[in-house]
Amino acid sequence: MILLHIDSSPLGPNSVSRHLTERVVSEWTATRPDTRVEYLDLAADAPSHLSADSLGFRLGPQAGASSEAQQRESAVSERLVAQFLRADVIVVGAPMYNFSVPSQLKAWIDRIVVAGKTFQYGANGPEGLAGGRKVIVASARGGFYGADNGSEAADFQECYLRHVFNFIGITDLEFVRAEGIGMGPDQRAKAINDAHVDIETRLPVAA
Fold this sequence. Notes:
single chain; alpha/beta; Rossmann fold; five-stranded parallel sheet; two-stranded antiparallel ribbon; 6 helices; globular
């Protein structure tokens, strides 16, 4: 089994999402010793955002011969897609930035959501090709965005991640949340502790 561990926060040791992904991976591997972990730190090594060059390789033969820049960008995308498709389990650290995900994480998603590789268009519309994998998202949010507090409409983080992974065929998707971490040290500590309890009680038995 291969587990792909992805972090996207640039905050290093001060990052709650990094702390949670580390805990998830530790808990997962403790009960599954045959797991091989691959690590991707998007804050240190993010792909460039989509550009004419990074999109050029997707345009097909009609675009003509690829330039050197397009070939380099194509190699980046091919590497990231291959790494993603090798994995049986993907653990993603996703802090909420301005109601959405960090741009580094969005850049990675843009590289792995590729027609013909992770999805295709069929007679009935888009079809995911990356099913059979499990994704665990460690979500860290400064406030509260649940349906019970009226802020759910402002959540473009978890709803986006849920939709994009579903789009490529992944339906085995779990979220571990630390919410309200920006609302004082007591709430931050409580949020992290609650997330730890969730990880320890729910994830070890999740196949």
